[in-house]
Amino acid sequence: MKLFYYQLKNILKTKETVWWTAAFPLVLGTLFYLTFGTANVDDQFSKIPVGVVWNQEDAYFASVLDEVEGDLFETTDYEEEDAKKALQKEKIDAYIVVGDSITMKTMKSSIQASIVEVFLNEYLSYKSAIETIAKEHPEKLAELVGQISDDSK
Asked: Helices (DSSP H) in the chain: which residue ranges?
């Protein structure tokens, strides 16, 4: 007990030691809390409103949209002119045109539009890979689909 008492007395004699042992951790902890304590990603992320124009049926794309509907996107079906109006009124951040090819239209560059674009690029990349492997090596198609489903988890 005497050793503890003398060590505490020694620490309290110099201001620098008091600063580094008591005040600095409190200041550092406060700064960390102010910086990272309120950064709750779940509260800040909201679903991205996206319009979909179906010029042609695509069952695979429809099923993929259904999968991400509740988590990532909030989709609404539109005719092309209605989608343009909704985009101008900023009811949606982007709209996807499903036809011979799948394209995206947006009015301005934003994080939400970039997320939609990355989603479409990933979808088109996987679709192309599946089509190529189905033509050239159909026996490996099941393995590819398994890898894709493992990657998406």
From this structure: 2-13, 15-18, 24-36, 41-44, 59-68, 80-88, 111-136, 141-151
